[in-house]
Design a protein that fits this description.
175 residues; mainly alpha; Arp2/3 complex 21 kDa subunit ARPC3; 6 helices; 2 strands; 5% strand; globular
């Protein structure tokens, strides 16, 4: 996040909006259900990818609002308690500091992604138990976490492809 005068306020909001757009696309994909070998699973943790690679130059205040919106949208689409994902995403965003500098190499980035999934999954499990009044079923959380972890290299490759596109002088760190 930046508060310096190098970018105008409108540019930092625009960068945050671009990150939100990428996050919404990931939220849409996170709500697709797959049924294979008699098991149902989803990719409910892939919006974490957008939080990990949120642009550094995005407006801090607007980024917090957009992360909240992303969580509310995913919760509304997946029929989870409405504030749960928004709360968990905000906590992760604040813990990560909003200035994530993850590796451009797959293995360390994958390890960071798994750590973020464990953090969000644990937070969702315990906060979710308080919200719904009973312990959530761990099997869907675990299968969604594994499926999202398996998909990570494809998202990582796509992000790298997009960020390498264009002249070097016009490259920006995007989601």
């Amino acid at each position: 996040m930046t508060d310096s005068g190098s970018l105008s306020q409108l540019q930092t909001i625009s960068i945050a909006l671009q990150a939100l757009a990428a996050g919404i696309i990931l939220v849409l994909f996170s709500n697709i259900s797959f049924h294979t070998f008699g098991y149902g699973f989803g990719l409910s943790f892939i919006p974490i990818f957008a939080l990990m690679y949120w642009p550094k130059n995005a407006s801090r205040s607007w980024s917090l609002f957009f992360v909240f919106l992303m969580g509310v949208l995913q919760a509304a689409m997946s029929f989870t308690p409405l504030g749960l994902l928004a709360f968990c995403y905000l906590i992760l965003f604040v813990v990560l500091g909003g200035e994530m500098t993850f590796s451009n190499r797959l293995a360390p980035a994958w390890g960071s992604y798994i750590t973020c999934i464990l953090f969000i999954g644990t937070l969702m499990y315990f906060v979710g138990s308080l919200v719904i009044g009973q312990w959530p079923n761990l099997i869907p959380i675990f299968t969604d976490a594994v499926a999202s972890t398996i998909v990570f290299p494809m998202l990582f490759w796509l992000r790298k492809l997009i960020s390498d596109f264009g002249p070097e002088s016009e490259r920006r760190e995007i989601v």
